[in-house]
Each structure stands twice: as structure tokens, then as C-alpha cells.
Write a structure and sequence with these properties.
5 strands; globular
């Protein structure tokens, strides 16, 4: 696993008090209940291609701010974002909130946390 730089970790630590985080178990429960929400994978395309959460949609962090309004125009939409380990998604949640989205959560532990919990993964052919 790649070691994160101190400035990156400081940036993530700075936004965490301002966002809501949700566990992988909570996301799974919401998927099982078929709650209406957007599950957005903000990882790189290559990470998405290697596997992703069921029902997720891919909007990479590099284009999130550019593309989010076209994909999810409702600023009150229920959105859960995740990345590889929960760091980039924390930054993504903060960014979406700054853009006016009011119901955004970041999944704690990201894709690795999901996999480590033994939860199902979609692998596209």
C-alpha cells in the first residue's frame, strides 16, 4: 500500500470534522434495504476496473467537481462517496459540500475496508 504524504494526511484530517462518515456495514445495510441513494466511487479508472461496490457509479475524483452536476443535479440528493481507503473520499465529500450538496457522506475505510469485511465486489468482464 502506498504511504500517504504528511501534507495529504493533514488535509484529510482538516476536513474530517466537517463531513459525515459512514461505515461499510451501514452502506451494505442501505444497499440491502434498497434505500435510494447515489453510491459514487471516486477512485481512478484502473481501480474501478479492478473491482467496485455493487450499485456504484464511477465519477473519478479528478473530474468529480466538473461532472457531478450533470450526473447528480439535485443538491439535496443522498450521496455516499468512497475511494480506496477513505482519504480521497473525505476530500471529495468536503468538495461536494462546498459546491452546495447537503446530504453527502464518505465511507470509512473505502474499498479496502469493504473487501476486508468480506463484502461483495463487482468485477466487470
Amino acid at each position: 500500500m502506498k504511504q500517504h504524504s504528511p501534507r495529504f494526511l493533514a488535509r484529510v484530517a482538516a476536513v474530517r470534522p466537517h463531513i459525515v462518515e459512514i461505515s461499510a456495514a451501514d452502506v451494505r445495510a442501505r444497499l440491502e434495504r434498497r434505500d435510494p441513494f447515489h453510491l459514487v466511487d471516486v477512485r481512478e479508472e484502473s481501480e474501478w476496473a479492478a473491482g467496485h461496490l455493487p450499485a456504484a457509479e464511477h465519477i473519478g475524483k479528478g473530474v468529480l467537481e466538473r461532472d457531478i452536476e450533470a450526473r447528480i443535479p439535485d443538491a439535496a440528493a443522498d450521496i455516499v462517496v468512497y475511494c480506496g481507503g477513505g482519504y480521497r473520499s473525505a476530500l471529495a465529500a468536503d468538495s461536494l459540500q462546498r459546491m452546495g450538496y447537503t446530504n453527502v457522506r464518505s465511507m470509512i475505510g473505502g474499498f479496502r475496508g469493504w473487501v476486508d469485511a468480506g463484502l461483495p465486489v463487482v468485477r466487470d468482464p
